[in-house]
Write a structure and sequence with these properties.
With 143 residues, the protein is an all-alpha fold. It has four helices and no strands. Helix content is 88%, strand content 0%. The chain has one domain. α3 runs antiparallel to α4.
Amino acid sequence: MATRFKVTPHAGDRDVALRILRTPQLQISLSSRLMLMSKSLRFQMLALLSASLVLLLLIALACFSFLSSNVQAYRGLLDGPLQASQLIDQANVQFKIQVQDWKDVLLRGKQPADRENYWGQFEQQERLVQATLSQLASLRRRR
C-alpha cells in the first residue's frame, strides 16, 4: 500500500522560491528562452500574421468609412434633382388640372351657380400649383 504525503506550504517556501528565481543562472536561462522564442520561426510567423491581420482590419475599417461617406454624399447629389423632378412633375399635373378647370368655367359655367362652383375649383387648383412652384423655388434657393 502506497503512502501519501501531505505537503503543506510554509511561509519560508515562498522566500526560497523567490531566491531561486533571483539566481543568476535562472535569469540567464529565462533570457535565453526569450531569445529562443523571439528567434523561433513559429513565433515570427505568428507575429507577422497577427500584425498583417490587424493592418488588414484597419484598412478595411478606413475603406468602409470612406465609402460610407461617399455614398451619403452621392445620395445627397441625387436626392436634390430627384426631388426637383418630382415637384416639376407634380406642378405639371396640377397645372393641367387647372387648365381643365378653366375650360369647365368657360364651357359649363353658363349658369351662375355652376360658374361659381367651377371658378372655386379653378382657384383651389391655382393655389396648389403656386404652392408646388414655391416649394420648387425654395429648393433651388437652398442649393
